[in-house]
Design goal:
- The structure is a single chain.
- The protein contains 13 helices and 13 strands.
- The longest helix has 24 residues.
- It is an alpha/beta fold.
- The chain is globular.
- The protein folds into two domains: 213 residues, Spore Coat Polysaccharide Biosynthesis Protein SpsA, Chain A, CATH 3.90.550.10; 117 residues, no CATH class.
- Helices cover 46% and strands 15% of the residues.
């Protein structure tokens, strides 16, 4: 059990960082098209978009896809367009059958884009002014087809931050993003906050049309690019890409309802196996320290210590207090609850609801491909 935590700690140290890359100074830098899907994002779109409009990169176009918003998103975008005439706004009023909303919005944005490089991001993401310039430098320098950046979470509250750290550790363990750049490895990565893709690679892999009914668009984009034999890399972008991911622990649980069962392609057996795995590797060890004796207690204790050490390191790396570490003993229970709730809610309703749209479970299963 302890080796799993050690794998995450050692693997995370192998990740490169965007902070080690200087902004590009090339005079012939490629045109980058930033594509932002926005569905009822009135609370976040203004400040987030402001960070894109102030990027220190000359050859840039920004496309915001207003995807059937019913709040003030459209009005905010038009007002910003008056102040920034170069801002491109695409309004979508209907969702075609066979598409998830965000995927369709990204697909339409990519079709409208003129750039040789496409950057998919979200409507609540804040980027430092030199983020794109640094990313393009690495992109061109390494001859990449896909570059994704891990972001810094700026949520509030000890329990929410701990839950996010725990979820991030789980993703690290499952996907091992430090191996995404290894062409001999099947490991891949994708991050919705920052997925930079060469247009030719995007089209070669099939784009969002190839994954139009998979709820986890960012990771799936990374997967189809890696499967196409294209060059991919994941870097730490903690100093450059930030987001207040969720407002509360309850909001995060609700937000994971569409993703967590989809991780196992809506397979109930695999979902329950995930619950068992979380229970064995994170819930059992603290109880083992209390209830076992001899060598077994030492093994359980080592597992708990390594888990707390990982939490402490992850918290400090994310600009959070190391005192969040003890919450690592609580969050596994929330994870198990979330997996079970997502699984049984989806099965009960025979559908997934997201952003005001309902998607049939039968259709999702029929059109989906496995993520793991």
């Amino acid at each position: 059990m302890s080796w799993l935590t050690a794998t995450i700690i050692l693997g995370s140290r192998r990740l490169g960082s965007l902070s080690d890359i200087a902004p590009t100074t090339a005079t012939d830098a490629p045109l980058v098209s930033i594509i932002v899907p926005a569905c009822n994002e009135a609370e976040t779109i203004g400040p987030a978009l402001a960070t894109l409009l102030t990027q220190e990169y000359a050859r840039l176009e920004i496309i915001v896809v207003n995807d059937r918003s019913t709040d003030a998103t459209g009005e905010i975008l038009r007002e910003m367009q008056q102040r920034h005439p170069g801002l491109i706004i695409l309004d979508i009023h209907e969702l075609p059958a066979g598409w998830l909303g965000k995927h369709h919005a990204l697909h339409c944005g990519a079709a409208l884009a003129n750039g040789d490089i496409l950057l998919f991001t979200d409507a609540d993401i804040h980027m430092a002014a030199d983020t794109v310039a640094r990313a393009v430098h690495r992109f061109e320098q390494a001859g990449l087809d896909h570059l994704c950046l891990l972001f810094k979470n700026k949520a509030k509250g000890w329990l929410l931050n701990s839950f996010i750290l725990d979820a991030g550790g789980g993703l690290f363990l499952l996907f091992k993003p430090w191996l995404a750049s290894n062409p001999r490895s099947k490991r891949f990565m994708g991050v919705g906050a920052f997925n930079m893709v060469r247009r030719q690679a995007y089209e070669q892999a099939g784009g969002h049309a190839a994954i139009k009914m998979h709820p986890i668009d960012d990771l799936m984009l990374g997967k189809i690019i890696k499967e196409a034999g294209l060059r991919q890399e994941c870097l730490s972008g903690y100093d450059f890409v930030t987001v207040e991911w969720y407002h509360s622990t309850g909001a995060m649980i609700d937000g994971l309802m569409k993703n967590i069962f989809a991780m196992v392609n809506f397979n109930t057996t695999l979902a329950l196996a995930g619950v068992l795995g979380v229970s064995l590797f994170t819930i059992l060890p603290p109880w083992g320290v209390l209830l076992s004796h001899g060598p077994a207690r030492l093994v359980f204790a080592l597992t708990v210590v390594l888990r707390l050490a990982f939490f402490s390191l992850a918290a400090r790396h994310g600009g959070l207090s190391a005192w969040l570490a003890p919450a690592a003993l609580v969050t596994p229970y929330i994870t198990v609850y979330t997996i079970l709730k997502a699984t049984f809610t989806t099965l009960k309703n025979n559908s997934v609801s997201w952003r005001g749209s309902r998607y049939s479970l039968d259709e999702l299963r029929r059109q989906n491909r496995s993520l793991l």
